Amino acid sequence: MAERNNTGKEGESEARAYLEKLGYQILHTNWHFHHYELDLVAVYDGELIVVEVKTRSVGCLLPPEEAVDRKKIRRIVAATDAYIRYFNYRLPVRFDIITMQKENGRYSVQEHIEDAFYAPIH
């Protein structure tokens, strides 16, 4: 379990560096509120960007973006709602997924999916 946690945290760190190089202003990393967590929260081009980072080692059978299922989306949206209320943000929100790949101890961005999902209506 510790290996998996380290892989996830290191993947998030690399995803953060990737976004910063693109000009995103990172507001929070691993923001927690009660039982909610947001991996990365940034501002870019007048939008609040909430990024879910999924890191997998080479050879993993499940594509990382498939781990963001309906239940996970609902939790991310609820956490984002809490975040917006807590910090009183009034920006449009975009939800992205960044998939990271770990190979031979190195991490690389596999895909950056902008507008990966929308908040469910109900």
From TrEMBL:
<dbReference type="InterPro" id="IPR011335">
    <property type="entry name" value="Restrct_endonuc-II-like"/>
</dbReference>
<comment type="similarity">
    <text>Belongs to the UPF0102 family.</text>
</comment>
<dbReference type="InterPro" id="IPR003509">
    <property type="entry name" value="UPF0102_YraN-like"/>
</dbReference>
<dbReference type="InterPro" id="IPR011856">
    <property type="entry name" value="tRNA_endonuc-like_dom_sf"/>
</dbReference>
<dbReference type="Pfam" id="PF02021">
    <property type="entry name" value="UPF0102"/>
</dbReference>
<protein>
    <recommendedName>
        <fullName>UPF0102 protein NEE14_010425</fullName>
    </recommendedName>
</protein>
